[in-house]
């Protein structure tokens, strides 16, 4: 049986920018080995697997990189919601709720943007572990830790742009990934970032929604505000809106379908 399969550029207002994600639509759950094999075949930073329960319009959502399953992924959630709305697989034109390993995640349409309601990832100052700054090729700056990642604030945007990690060394750091960030030079933006996760099979992620669940907590403490417009300055790049509402991070982004087809078994 053919299975609907899409490739979507998330946090993008046009094709070939932002972060590409696979979206696989299922009528019933599949085993983890099969989903991992599909994600490896797609060879994108993440592929989202959505189980559609037609009778209740509930949606189960899981995310896989080419090598592992992850508990939270922003851009592939954005891509999944975009596919469900753009292909009219839900009659609810305003809201979608996904059941995930990180709890319920809600998405809503906001004009040309989609807003996602994620938990804030708390972050606290912590001295960088041995080898982290060396692997990034940077001098030690402000460093902090989340339950998933390390964060390093660099002096300016140019320092973030020019980071050139040794990915072999960086993969030995015990964490999901490493965020580097700085104030933006663009007056219309608040901050910039990049995200490296070689231990998860992704040297550099183009745009990382889940990282902004921590960045909103970090920059709120630095700037004394809770509503931000940010850019992840990878080669492809992408713009993320993020605001804090109590213990929730409201992420906003756009998405564009670039490939629509079927997975043949």
What does the model show?
With 265 residues, this protein is an alpha+beta fold. The protein has 2 domains: 127 residues, Diaminopimelate Epimerase, Chain A, domain 1 (Roll), CATH 3.10.310.10; 123 residues, Diaminopimelate Epimerase, Chain A, domain 1 (Roll), CATH 3.10.310. It is 20% helix and 42% strand. The chain is built from 6 helices and 18 strands. The chain has an 18-stranded mixed β-sheet that branches. The longest helix has 15 residues. The chain is globular and about 55 Å long. It starts with a strand and ends with a strand.
Jot down its keywords.
2 domains; globular; 20% helix; Diaminopimelate Epimerase, Chain A, domain 1; 265 residues; 18 strands; 18-stranded mixed β-sheet
Number of helices: 6
Approximate shape: globular
Overall pLDDT: 95
CATH class of the largest domain: Alpha Beta
**Largest sheet geometry:** 18 strands, mixed
Number of domains: 2
Report the span from N to C terminus: 6 Å
Radius of gyration: 18 Å
Give me the CATH fold name of the largest domain. Diaminopimelate Epimerase, Chain A, domain 1
Give the helix level as a range of percent. Answer: 10-25%
H-E order: EEHEEEHEEEEHEEHHEEEHEEEE
Strand percentage: 35-45%
**What is the strand tally?**
18
In terms of quaternary structure, the protein is single chain
Short description:
The chain is of the alpha+beta class.
Walk me through the topology:
Layout: E1 3-10, E2 19-26, H1 32-42, E3 46-53, E4 58-64, E5 69-70, H2 74-86, E6 95-100, E7 103-110, E8 113-119, E9 124-125, H3 132-136, E10 142-145, E11 149-153, H4 157-161, H5 167-170, E12 177-183, E13 191-197, E14 202-205, H6 209-223, E15 227-232, E16 238-245, E17 248-253, E18 255-263
Parallel strand pairs: 2-3, 4-6, 11-12, 13-15
Antiparallel strand pairs: 1-2, 1-18, 3-4, 4-5, 6-7, 7-8, 8-17, 9-10, 10-11, 12-13, 13-14, 15-16, 16-17
């Amino acid at each position: 049986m053919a299975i609907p399969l899409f490739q979507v550029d998330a946090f993008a207002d046009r094709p070939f920018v932002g972060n590409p994600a696979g979206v696989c639509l299922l009528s019933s759950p599949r085993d983890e080995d099969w989903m991992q094999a599909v994600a490896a075949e797609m060879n994108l930073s993440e592929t989202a697997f959505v189980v559609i329960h037609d009778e209740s319009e509930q949606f189960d959502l899981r995310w896989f990189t080419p090598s592992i399953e992850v508990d939270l992924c922003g851009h592939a959630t954005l891509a999944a919601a975009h596919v469900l709305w753009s292909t009219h697989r839900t009659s609810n034109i305003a809201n979608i709720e996904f059941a995930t390993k990180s709890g319920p995640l809600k998405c809503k349409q906001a004009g040309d943007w989609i807003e996602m309601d994620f938990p804030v990832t708390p972050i606290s100052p912590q001295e960088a572990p041995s080898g982290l700054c060396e692997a990034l090729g940077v001098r030690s700056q402000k460093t902090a830790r989340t339950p998933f990642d390390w964060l390093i604030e660099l002096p300016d945007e140019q320092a973030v742009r020019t980071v050139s990690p040794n990915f072999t060394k960086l993969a030995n750091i015990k964490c999901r990934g490493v965020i580097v960030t700085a104030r933006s030079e663009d007056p219309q933006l608040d901050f910039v970032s990049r995200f490296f996760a070689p231990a998860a099979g992704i040297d550099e992620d183009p745009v990382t929604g889940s990282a902004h669940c921590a960045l909103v907590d970090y920059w709120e403490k630095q700037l004394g505000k809770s509503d931000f417009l940010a850019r992840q300055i990878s080669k492809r790049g992408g713009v993320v809106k993020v605001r804090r509402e109590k213990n929730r991070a409201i992420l906003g982004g756009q998405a564009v379908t670039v490939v629509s087809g079927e997975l043949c078994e």
